[in-house]
Prior knowledge:
By secondary structure, the chain is α+β, with helices and mostly antiparallel strands.
Amino acid sequence: MDSQSQNIGPVIILLGLVIAFLYVHFTGGSGLTRIYLAGALVVAALLILLPSFNVDLPDWWKAALGTTKIELGLDLQGGTHLLMGVKLDEAVKTQLRRRADDIKRELKANKLDIDSINVDDAGNLIVKLKASDQRTPFLDLVQKSFTDMTVASVSDATGGPAYSLGFKPSEATLIRSNAMDQALETIRNRIDQLGVRETTVAKEGDNEILIQLPGIQDPERAKELIGKTAVLEFKLIDDSHNVEDAAKDGPPPGDELLYGSADRGGKTPYLVESPVLMQGDVVTDARVRPGGRLEGPYVAVELDARGAQIFDTMTADNVGRKLAIILDKTVYSDPVIKERIPGGHVQINGRFSINEAHDLAIVLKSGALPAPVEIEEERTVGPSLGRDSIRAGVMSFVIGAGAVLIFMAVYYDGAGLLADFGLALNILLLICVMAAMGATLTLPGIAGIVLTLGMSVDANVLVNERMREELRAGKSPREAVKLGYQRAWSAIRDSNISTFAAGLILFQFGTGPVKGFAVTLCVGVLTGLFSCIVVTRAWYDYRISIRKLNVISV
């Protein structure tokens, strides 16, 4: 049974009981029936909360009610806090390199020859022409086809015509903004596939991303997964030169020397041809598949239509040669192309462990980061801090709730005790709903529970004060109850609607713990109205129905 289906049982039970209670209440049903339904709600809530107390439950129980429980956030159970900087200048350089390929194609189509084209250290694209008579055609081509770029003449040691091209300021700003948004979304997708609940992934400043991972068990693995640029490339192995000579004397022109992962028998050198035959932007899906006993699991990659066509042509033209599958300049596998491979199905082998294969599938499926990222700040919240936070949060709640319950019982006598029952039911239902939803509890969430307690007290105070006024005016206990609830309702309704609206705004625009506070607040408003207004009214209606409400202790 998946996690979503496990949530259905408790939610259906709670909603069924609440709807039944409201139906009986608004159709004039007896107070005794409503008291029975309130008792059933209490029992159901306690049963749903059992998994949150790590009670060992039988299988049939788990199948019927599921095992969803309240999770603890980063501030309560510990976890990892990261602040990562995105190198946006590298994103601009990457776009320049792609633009260089576009310029090469346009120059070739217009029969213009270039001596070289590359990106310098300052982040400019330097184009060197072979002949002076190509100046005007080149400038006309740039002005016509590359309107988002600026061009300036630069001096060259060879004396030939050379130009420096760069993005216009507005275009560079747009590239940086898009790269930041893409990095944020890519990191968020990778973290989601890790299965960590109630994470925080938010933009900080112009080029930083805040990441909080509650309860993460392997922070090093998470950091490696999040920070991996994941640039996937397919290149051919150069089998015409000796790789040992290249490692000793440097690779020949048109080649580059790469290495395999150090986790698989040391850094094995590979001499690969520089041209990129295919990149990872054509990947649509990546899944871990079980392999043989010796090879271990592998990653099955699915390509889109363009990628399938490129891979088909690439394998057809290079049968018998080795293909290097490269991720972030590391060669993961170098299979021999035995035959043409149509259909866009690629298999990456590398003697992976299950975790390595899973992480590789995640980064391939979530896409490449548009720019490298680096960890600027790292904090690990240990279990001891989590226990201290829990103890402080629980203590604040117990003291606050105890003070409120004692005050209500002393100041309003019997009506105060009834209000205390409504308050206790409100907190019980609130925690139960959070458990049924599998929500995450944080310190701001505990603050939301305390605030909910205050809102519920406010509602009961308004009702009790209205009943006191009606009794002083000479009304009978029955009339005092009816008018007390009626005349307090408008003030209770308005205050709770405004609080609920504020909670919705916090949930919409907040992140992480702020959202946890908003969820607790909104759910608490609903359970508070139900338990402290509707349920407590059932007791008075029951007393009226058996003609025993001769006096109100208020």
